[in-house]
Structure formats: C-alpha cells, structure tokens
Amino acid sequence: xxxxxxxxxxxxxxxxxxxxxxxxxxxxxxxxxxxxxxxxxxxxxxxxxxxxxxxxxxxxxxxxxxxxxxxxxxxxxxxxxxxxxxxxxxxxxxxxxxxxxxxxxxxxxxxxxxxxxxxxxxxxxxxxxxxxxxxxxxxxxxxxxxxxxxxxxxxxxxxxxxxxxxxxxxxxxxxxxxxxxxxxxxxxxxxxxxxxxxxxxxxxxxxxxxxxxxxxxxxxxxxxxxxxxxxxxxxxxxxxxxxxxxxxxxxxxxxxxxxxxxxxxxxxxxxxxxxxxxxxxxxxxxxxxxxxxxxxxxxxxxxxxxxxxxxxxxxxxxxxxxxxxxxxxxxxxxxxxxxxxxxxxxxxxxxxxxxxxxxxxxxxxxxxxxxxxxxxxxxxxxxxx
Length: 385
What we know:
Strand order of the largest sheet: 8-9-10-7-11-12-13-14
CATH superfamily of the largest domain: Dihydrodipicolinate Reductase, domain 2
Number of domains: 2
Mean pLDDT: 92
Number of strands: 15
Shape: globular
CATH class of the largest domain: Alpha Beta
Strand content: 15-25%
C-alpha cells in the first residue's frame, strides 16, 4: 500500500454515498476511490461520472478480487451490511459501514468478530460525532462545565409524507420518474416499506440519538426499554417510538422519534443535556435531507442555561463554533477513516484519537433497539411490526 495515498471502493451508490461521502473523496489528498459497486447499473454509471471513479462493478466479490482495495465504504441498505463487512474482512480491507450497523445485535457481533480476526478497522457511520456543535457539547459535558449530567433528552421529529398509496404521492412519483428520479429512493421512504430493513424509526433514527448519548457521556447503557407505534397502514414499520436508557453513571436518557408530526424545527436532532450546574440545549438541522446547498456551513446550534435561566427563561448562545466545508461532519468522518488506515494522528479535537463510533457502539445501540422490538412483539399490541 502506498503509505501516502490509499485505494478505496464504495459499495452502494445511493444518496448517502453521493451527497455524504464522495464529494469529500473526489480530490482527497490521501485517498482515491478506484471502484464503485451497485446492483443498479444506472446508479453506478452516474456515480462514476460525478465522482470521477474509473471502475464500475455490479458484484462486490468481483470488485474485491480485481481491485484489492485498502478500505471500503459500505453504503448499502442495512440488510447487506453484515455479508459485505465479512467479505471485506476476508479480503483484508478496512471497513466504514453506514448506520444502522445491521438488522439485529447478532449480526453486529459477527461483524465485530470478523474485523477483529482480520485485524482491520471497523468504523460505523455515526456522523454526528464529527459535527462541530456536538463536539463542543461533548467537551462541555466531559469537562464538568455542566456539573453532574443526570438526564439527556433528544428528539428527531419530522412532518409526515403524503400517503404512499394515495393519489398525491402516486402522481408525484410518476412525474419524478419521467425526470429519471426514483422518489421512494430519493426520499429514503423504502426504509419504511421494505421487509428486509428490520425496523422503522427506532432503527433509522434511534441509532443516531442513542449514539449521541454514548458520545456525550462516554458510556453504554446498563438498563433500557422502549415503546413504538405504527400509525400508518401504508408503511410496514413503526413511524413513532421512544427509547429510554440508564447509564452506569446514573444518567437517564430519553430518545423520541416521530415522522408524522408538525414540530418546531426542521428535520434534525434536538434536545437538552441537563446538568447540576448548567444545561445545554442543542438543535441540529439536517439540511442535506432537504438537498440545501448551504448544508456545509450549518453546524449544530447550542444554548447554555445557567443559574439565571429559571428566572429569565433565557439561555446564552455558545460560540464561536467552527463552520464551513473544512469543518463539515461528513468530510471529517472520511478524514478519520482514511487517517486510521494510514496510521496518522486522529486527535482532531483535543479529546484523544478514540473518537469515531466503533462496532461496539453500533452493537450497544442495536441491543437497545432490538430489545424494544422484541418486547413489542411479545406484548402483541396493535400495530406491532
């Protein structure tokens, strides 16, 4: 391997690869993307054209044999994560795997074991850990600025799409197809309808919220529970859920997800870290979800509530928080993966190199979510998946 520049391959050429990762890899000084793999020939061709990738494949095994990449980005639907991770490990390739890590905890354990045996890195795509605002929140929580953190609340709420079997969506789907756009794919709605995903909002967004708790506190749950609802019969999986975990430190953390509500913020994570000395509110807008061009420049906003706040109701903005393309979370996440393969220093934020989400983090999130699904199925409550 060229110790100054590594060879990468991307498997899965959907939205997260195209908008989240490849823009920062196209001209990366320490890596080149040599191959793209997707079951859709049109996806692969368009990604190769956009990102300047020379080789296209429709089969991952063929790609590994021909290209022998140093690392791979697995950006497929989550049901393919385990077999592709095991395949990469067998070929000695380091693995960046998008979230959710897999469809259940047992698959996560197999992925961890395979990468450990092969001696390759396994990084999970919990990109929020690299957002400048969340980095600041982590520092404040870890440095004692907030006092003893006893509770964290986080939510991911967004307005409902039109009924997928209704005339509005069907008409929009038809017109989008004429323009060459798969509306279900571009909006990510297949996650709520495909049997193979293994779950809905708990799996899709609960993963992010749980990982924020792990990230802020540096620990994994000792107790957990969850509830879910499927409010729409045009979707296979739950569109609403709540997860609650208790950490070894005693902190209780609650995550709420709902994709069928009118909320007071755009799509993104919102919540508060409650401490004995001060509390910190955060509001992250996932502008990439909207395809907004300025998403590179919009870090999480933070507001600090202190002794005066119970009387005034006021919090003070936390600033400055770095912004701009060089500080954008998807870029830094790719830098971290590449620098890990090259053995370069990864202490980007002065908090040590052990920064990104590992297989263990992905596994612990999946254990909480899987238990919530199993409890719901056992209870036999109406609307269970």
